[in-house]
C-alpha cells in the first residue's frame, strides 16, 4: 500500500506540478513572463464582460427587458 501512495506522490510532485515549478523559477528572471497566464485570463474575462454589457444594452434598447418587479412569480 505504501508503494501506491508513493506512486501518487511521484505523479503529482514530479509530473503534474512540473509546469508550475517552471513558472516559479521563471518568476525570478521575469515577472511579466511568469504571469502571462494571469494576463491571458484577465483579457478573456474583460472581453466577456464587455460582450455581456453590450448584449444587455442591446436588449434594453429593443425594449425586450422586463424590469417589472413582478417579472418572477416568487416576487408577487
UniProtKB/TrEMBL annotation:
Transmembrane residue ranges: 32-54
Keywords: Glycosyltransferase, Membrane, Transferase, Transmembrane, Transmembrane helix
Listed InterPro entries: DUF6341 (IPR045922)
GO molecular function per UniProt: glycosyltransferase activity
Protein name in the entry: Uracil phosphoribosyltransferase
Organism: Flavobacterium zhoui
Amino acid at each position: 500500500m505504501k508503494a501506491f501512495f508513493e506512486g501518487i506522490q511521484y505523479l503529482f510532485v514530479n509530473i503534474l506540478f512540473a509546469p508550475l515549478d517552471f513558472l516559479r523559477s521563471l518568476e525570478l528572471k521575469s515577472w511579466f513572463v511568469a504571469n502571462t497566464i494571469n494576463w491571458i485570463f484577465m483579457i478573456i474575462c474583460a472581453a466577456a464582460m464587455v460582450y455581456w454589457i453590450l448584449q444587455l444594452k442591446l436588449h434594453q434598447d429593443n425594449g425586450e427587458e422586463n424590469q417589472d418587479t413582478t417579472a418572477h412569480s416568487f416576487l408577487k
